[in-house]
Amino acid sequence: YVWRRIVNEDESRQIALMELFEKHPKMIVFYNFDYELDILKNLYYGENVEIAEWNGHKHQPIPTCDSWVYLVQYTAGAEGWNCISTDTIVFYSQNYSYKIMKQSAGRTDRLNTPFKDLYYYHLKSRSGIDLAICRALSEYCSACMDFDPDVQRPQKAYGMSEEIVISDTVIRCSNRNRCKNIERYLRKKVTNDGVGKTDEAMP
């Protein structure tokens, strides 16, 4: 927990988020811990920007104004709702569970979305803990003939105490809602030790 907090509180991650908000004035931000919520709420996004939350403390509706940030804690809001008024989700920190990450991304991935492309930004450092989580969440469907690999376009690296690399991921898999690979992978469970080992769950 302490290791993750040191990494997640680094100022470079906040700078990265603010630069993304300049491009995407309607944004869902997923996070893990209350200290991250405090950071995210206290950032200055600009005038006339509405901030709303969904977590264990509050369950506010998605804003309807021209510029907003919706702060969602994984445990509270990874499933059971959807949003088709934005094409952008930022994962301020990663969750250990692939299933939770996939469900969170699915909040904007709806059949009735008006957007052609959906954007998912993962803010990650090169610290040992972030690299371990990345290994646990590594993509599994690169061998699928129906899968057009996600497009990774590194934009900027912030060389402060932790280096943040932003990747712009565009989902283009036409079978993402019925993929057997996804079904198979979700039958696996990721251990909570952060090393990224997996084993088969019981049917």
Number of helices: 7
List low-pLDDT spans: 140-174, 185-203
Oligomer: single chain
Termini separation (Å)?
Answer: 31 Å
Report the major sheet.
6 strands, mixed
Radius of gyration: 17 Å
Walkthrough of the structure:
By secondary structure, the protein is α/β, with parallel strands linked by helices. 28% of the residues lie in helices and 20% in strands. It has 7 helices and 10 strands. It has a 6-stranded mixed β-sheet. α5 (98-105) links the parallel β4 (88-91) and β5 (119-122). The longest helix has 13 residues, at 11-23. The radius of gyration is 17 Å and the shape is globular. The protein starts with a helix and ends with a strand. Mean pLDDT is 75; it is low at 140-174 and 185-203.
Compile the SSE list and pairings.
Layout: H1 2-8, H2 11-23, E1 26-31, H3 34-42, E2 50-54, E3 68-73, H4 74-77, E4 88-91, H5 98-105, E5 119-122, H6 128-136, E6 157-159, E7 163-165, E8 168-170, H7 180-185, E9 188-190, E10 198-200
Parallel strand pairs: 1-3, 1-4, 2-3, 4-5
Antiparallel strand pairs: 5-8, 6-7, 9-10
